[in-house]
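Reagents: none. Just compute today. Flagellar hook-basal body complex protein FliE.
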Amino acid sequence: MSIPMTGLVAYNKALADFQSTQKSVAKSTVNLQREIPTVQKSFGETLTESIKEVNNLQQAKNDMITSFASGETQNVHELMISMQKASVAMNLTSAVRNKVIEAYKEMSKLQF
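Predicted 3D structure written out:
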């Protein structure tokens, strides 16, 4: 077998592998599209769930602070992570609230 023939065999094998992989990806994409639920949440539901999640993070932070202060746990790392998560969530919620209020004010200035 010569060198050009070896290259051609390797090319054909790589091409066959690529085509089989492409077919399997196409099949998995079709399966994923069937599994995606088409139910969409309203803005109000999404907002309510987000606020509940922020509240849950705040409650978890308060529970961890109480647990740490009473001496039940000594894990400072988890306490700090919990406090940062709650802080970031609250800051994001405040920023979203401020943007919504700003948009409302702009809308109220419009004349119809």
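The first helix runs from residue 3 to 35.
Action item: order primers for follow-up constructs.
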